[in-house]
Write a structure and sequence with these properties.
Strand content: 5-15%
Oligomer: single chain
Helix content: 55-70%
Number of strands: 4
Strand order of the largest sheet: 2-1-3-4
Radius of gyration: 29 Å
Number of helices: 6
Order of helices and strands: HHEHEHEEHH
Largest sheet: 4 strands, mixed
Shape: globular
């Protein structure tokens, strides 16, 4: 009687091990498949560049201490650049109206922010002021210089 119980137990143990092994193999296969790079799915074989433009906008914002999206012939953009120049603060910027893909960059900027405003001013990867009027107001009151000194943009 003990041998039979032992045999049943051993058979059940072996089935459990086989089921567990199959489960582990399936798990490894599924994890490996999830890690493998997938081919992009394009509609009608066309590549959607929206991600490229969003990535380019985000990289400019994150990779530069102060970054502006401006237009060369826009009065507000010109005033924003002049304010930073008067304060001696080095800035980086893209004049969207001079870029071949400026409209796509502006759309990508809008998709990131949820609104469209030129100039768009960023400091340390975050929106700095919402518009030129706020920038001018802070400049005239001296608050802008205080903020820039606190962030070590002015020494």
């Amino acid at each position: 009687y003990q041998r039979r119980v032992r045999g049943v137990f051993t058979l059940a143990g072996m089935q459990t091990r086989v089921i567990l092994l199959v489960f582990l193999v399936q798990l490894v296969v599924n994890v490996f498949a999830a890690v493998q790079p997938q081919e992009p799915h394009y509609k009608n074989g066309e590549h959607n560049d929206k991600f490229h433009y969003v990535d380019r906008v985000a990289r400019n914002i994150l990779d530069n201490e102060i970054f502006l999206f401006t237009k060369a012939k826009d009065d507000d953009s010109i005033r924003a650049k002049e304010i930073f120049k008067k304060l001696g603060v080095p800035i980086r910027y893209i004049d969207l109206d001079l870029e071949a893909d400026g409209e796509q960059l502006e759309e990508a900027l809008e998709s990131l922010l949820g609104y469209r405003t030129i100039p768009s001013i960023f400091a340390k990867g975050k929106p700095f002021v919402p518009n030129i009027y706020q920038l001018e107001s802070e400049y005239e009151s001296g608050q802008l210089e205080v903020r820039l000194r606190a962030w070590n943009f002015i020494k």
